[in-house]
Amino acid sequence: MNAYLIKGARPLGGDPVDILLKDGRIAAIGDSLAATGAEVVEAAGLIALPGLVDLHTHLREPGREDAETVETGSRAAALGGFTAVHAMANTDPVADTAGVVEQVWRLGQEAGLVDVVPVGAVTVGLKGERLAELGAMADSAARVRVFSDDGHCVADPALMRRALEYVKAFDGVVAQHAEEPRLTVGAQMHEGDRSASLGLTGWPAAAEEAIIARDVLLAEHVGARLHVCHVSTAGSVEILRWAKSRGVQVTAEVTPHHLLLTDACAESYDPVFKVNPPLRTDADVEALRAGLADGTIDVVGTDHAPHAVEDKESEWAQARPGMLGLEQALSVVIETMVEPGRLDWAGVADRMSVRPAAIGRLADHGRPLAPGEPANLVLVDATARASVDPAALASRSRNSPYAGRELPGRVVATFLRGVPTVLDGKAQK
Ligand SMILES: NC(=O)N[C@@H](CC(=O)O)C(=O)O
Ligand SMILES: [Zn+2]
Ligand SMILES: [Zn+2]
């Protein structure tokens, strides 16, 4: 079947319409469209959004297939309503050559559940010493446009400057993990009253803000595109607002967990809440929500970071940082932004599809729901509520910070180029 008729869905929360998908595209949108051979998908009451796009996903393949593979991560993504994800470069081997990014790209095509878009490392082996073959990765079959040493900061300012200059040649962007390493030696959680009382080494907000301030100045100086990963502090939002008001080509991302959770989670000493950058304070969470609402923060990026049980279920200090995100990202955005009235559905589409696709220069994603456009879309039941069961997740790992938490929103169907990857809430392969 290469045609689907979606009955009664509400594009961006508007009036119900029928949407006909045919040969990979939206063929027609209207009232009471005739099925004429198309498979009917009943969607009364469901919200239709363009397929979500993640700028920040860790798929762990190659190297840690015990934690996630391109296929299992792709399935988690499709179930979360995503049609494209950017796969971070901190794999083993590191995605710092055309060969590795092409391998990841091919694995994504074979899985066929989302478009897996490889991110290229900025420096060889993420070591922060010399630039990787950025041009070769850009010219490869993977057509890399986003470059990041994520997991590590490109700390050397001269190297960061050269990376920014270099990627201009192919309209690329450097996505920075903003963490001044000399300020976070041994850091375990947000530095503040709670880290003091828990006796855990602090990760000060200034370690993030200092790098963002430096990098927006560098991006302005060389006229290049900068993207800031997982912004976590109120001060970072202020710096970004200032930089944007000066016309700096900077974009920024916030994770679902930084929109919802705070450093109070660390009081449990449960390492599922250990993450880089750390969960911050209530005031930071409020500033992040406000920044996302007013567009200072451009996108929600999941920073989906699967970890094997032995890397997570240990003492806090020994556990790896990072938490799952793909399958609950939309639910967290509904809970923190839509239900409180801070973002409407058009806003959700903008922050989770349109802008991330634009930053990654993905031509076929983040498009309007209109005839002729690629049929990449998601149908969401915004009224459903369910409690998160980590055992039921499609990810190969179980480190969800939302275990047992009730969240709104259920992805009912996801279509990639007109083909359902999820139907009735179930992955189709
Ligand atoms: N966020 C994390 O705490 N961990 C990420 C790396 C990163 O995003 O910095 C990971 O790869 O596990
Ligand atoms: Zn990071
Ligand atoms: Zn990351």
Short structural description:
It contains 12 helices and 19 strands. The chain has 429 residues and is α/β, with parallel strands linked by helices. It is globular and about 65 Å long.
Main structural class: alpha/beta
Give the DSSP E fraction (strand runs of 2 or more residues).
15-25%
**pLDDT averaged over residues:** 98
- Radius of gyration equals 20 Å
What share of residues is helical?
Answer: 25-40%
Contiguous helical run count: 12
According to CATH, the fold-level topology of the largest domain is: TIM Barrel
Q: Which CATH top level class of the largest domain fits? A: Alpha Beta
CATH architecture of the largest domain: Alpha-Beta Barrel
Cα end-to-end separation: 15 Å
Which ligands does the model contain, each kind named once? N-carbamoyl-L-aspartate, zinc ion
Number of domains: 2
Number of strands: 19
Task: Report what the structure shows.
It is a single chain. The chain is an alpha/beta fold and 429 residues long. It folds into two domains: 3-47 and 373-427, Urease, subunit C, domain 1 (Roll); 51-359, TIM Barrel (Alpha-Beta Barrel), CATH 3.20.20. It is 29% helix and 22% strand. The chain is built from twelve helices and 19 strands. Helix 6 runs parallel beside helix 7. The protein is globular and about 65 Å long. The two termini are 15 Å apart. The mean pLDDT is 98. Bound molecules: N-carbamoyl-L-aspartate (NCD) and zinc ion (2 copies). N-carbamoyl-L-aspartate binds at residues 58, 90, 150-151, 177, 275-276, 303, 305, 321-322. One zinc ion is lined by residues 56, 58, 88, 150, 303, 305. This is Dihydroorotase. The active site is at 303.
